[in-house]
Write a sequence for this structure.
């Protein structure tokens, strides 16, 4: 039986092989010298299945360990019901979903829970995996601890929702075999987090590979990305809301059309906020272009996409400008200071604010003439 113990630092893990779960204990702190005898520590037990591991139980185990109760918990990997009964919490194995007993499996035929059924009135209807189940029942506490905010703080709830929608739900869907869309994809994506976790499993022709070592490496990777996602929404995404809102509300001062916005600071995550604000403020016509400075202090004009996940734009930059640069583009457009327009027509650049604004205005006028 493999048992895993971990000290309070996320990067440090110790692997123990024990014959009997009831007598196994986690040991050894990072600051112990090799000559000292290990100090035995009793700990909680998190049960999950052995054999090939997947992203959902990896994330479930990591999230549970963010809670004070399970911070030093051993991870016991087995399918033996008698051994699982000795665990304090069990994820992704056992054929039971019972929050009162801390049992969180989703493989039984009768299981069809989603975020919307476990946590109404949440909107997501994707069938939950063990990761989603743990997140539904413990996610607010986990997020609040990482953010160092109260569970009831509104920011905690906002980040909780965003992390599910943009991190956990994907893992739920992939583990349950739910397609992202109907039809054949034009290309394959082989770098999502679930696929990357699968690569930590032993290869078919590695009979003596250390499966537990791969499990721990996968947990370290998934855990780091989970923490990054939670902190991103607090430190970057939320502060950008105010900047985008100010730009949206002041758009008619930039151009009477109301279809161009200017951000005082470049590089902020604006798309999600812009779509939300358009809906909240009932903006019509929709915004077509955003202007901002790049790292070289030059000005960019970027098209607003049709949706957050779309590569199509509400109004691309003119066809005749695409793929041109510098003097050639300046001559073709009749606008001073042009730097480039991407061949895809979704972004362009100018040396000055006035030039970038003129590129946006002229693009709107050219589109009007075509209609």
């Amino acid at each position: 039986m493999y048992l895993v113990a971990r000290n309070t630092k996320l990067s440090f893990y110790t692997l123990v092989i024990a014959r009997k779960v009831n007598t196994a204990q986690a040991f050894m702190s990072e600051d112990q010298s090799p000559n000292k005898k290990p100090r035995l520590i009793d700990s909680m037990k998190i049960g999950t299945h052995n054999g090939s591991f997947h992203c959902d139980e990896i994330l479930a185990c990591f999230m549970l360990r963010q809670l004070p109760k399970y911070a030093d918990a051993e991870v016991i990997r087995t399918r033996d019901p008698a051994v699982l009964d000795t665990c304090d919490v069990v994820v992704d194995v056992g054929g039971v979903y019972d929050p009162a007993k801390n049992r969180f499996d989703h493989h039984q035929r009768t299981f069809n829970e989603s975020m919307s059924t476990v946590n109404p009135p949440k909107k997501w209807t994707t069938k939950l995996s063990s990761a989603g189940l743990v997140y539904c029942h413990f996610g607010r506490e986990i997020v609040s601890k990482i953010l160092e905010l109260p569970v009831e703080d509104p920011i905690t709830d906002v980040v909780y929702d965003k992390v599910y929608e943009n991190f956990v739900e994907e893992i739920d869907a992939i583990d349950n075999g739910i397609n992202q869309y109907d039809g054949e994809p034009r290309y394959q994506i082989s770098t999502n987090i679930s696929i990357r976790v699968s690569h930590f499993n032993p290869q078919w022709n590695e009979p003596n590979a250390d499966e537990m070592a791969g499990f721990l490496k996968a947990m370290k990777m998934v855990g780091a990305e989970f923490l990054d996602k939670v902190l991103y929404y607090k430190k970057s995404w939320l502060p950008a809301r105010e900047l985008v809102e100010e730009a949206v509300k002041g758009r008619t001062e930039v151009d009477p059309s109301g279809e161009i916005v200017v951000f005082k600071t470049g590089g902020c995550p604006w798309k999600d906020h812009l779509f939300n604000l358009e809906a909240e403020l009932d903006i019509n016509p929709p915004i077509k272009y955003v202007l901002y400075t790049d790292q070289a202090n030059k000005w960019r004009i970027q098209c607003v996409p049709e949706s957050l996940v779309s590569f199509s734009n509400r109004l691309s930059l003119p066809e005749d400008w695409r793929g041109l640069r510098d003097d050639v583009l300046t001559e073709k457009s009749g606008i001073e200071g042009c730097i480039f327009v991407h061949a895809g027509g979704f972004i362009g650049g100018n040396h000055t604010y006035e030039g970038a604004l003129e590129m946006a205005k002229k693009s709107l006028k050219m589109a009007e003439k075509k209609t």
About this structure: The chain has a mean pLDDT of 90. Residues 32 and 38 are 8 Å apart (CA to CA). DSSP finds eleven helices and 14 strands in the chain.
